[in-house]
Amino acid sequence: MIFSAKQLRRGWTDWHLVMALLMVVVGVAATFNAWVDLFRTTTARGDVRHMWLLPLVIVWLIWVRRQRMQMCQPGGTWIGPLLLIGGWLVSIMGQRVSVELLWHAGAVVVVMGCVTSVLGFQLFKAFLPAFVALLFLVPLPYGIELRLAVASGDVAATLVQPMPSGYVMAMQQAAPTLKCAGLLAYAFAFGMPYRTWVRLLLLLVSPLAAILMLMLQMITHELMLGWWHSPRAESVTDMAGWLMIPLTLALLMGLIRLLRWAAVPLQYYKLADEA
Fold this sequence. Notes:
2 domains, 13 helices, 75% helix, globular
């Protein structure tokens, strides 16, 4: 048995989990072309780093809310079909008008609707941040993503003054770095019961972490070029990109410590584990 005795008394069984997984398969199959195009677009832009992080973020957001499962009951599944139909219509409309953002986002919402049709509204509401995290799969329109990447890359390059090869590398890494920083900030912000303004502040700080990471990559790139030829230097620089995870978390934790030191009220209530 996967569920605890309390959860079993509230009506949950292992079949709910099995049916939810089956409905995920059904939802992906129903919008298969959109999912294929979503992953093709993401990999073509080289933005796969945040997709490796996303499952860990979702598991984290579910884990920190696991106590809420005892307050949820199966039922209220009416919202699932609404999400499913709404996502399907948005996806179809996006495909017909050639707006990839709508096409992809609609497919993700269809999967949310399929899961909610089995698990119900109470669980959907209790674990909403984990559901919303799925939208990080959706690629931004290329024009918007390019402008954000150029802006952050220009700021980092202005501070570091790299060689032309370092600037080109920064432009290539800017978009993936921004997405990873945003995803980590989202997980950090919604992993604790922070007030709304604190969560917004943490999300707004994430571009700063991305810029710091780009600066570190530029410096690493310049140092590696002095020792090795270009392909090996680029490999080391790509590996250094993963340092953005501890760097971003350290920046966010430092901000929270600063606010606590200033005696600023950050949370509405404590988690069960902290009581």
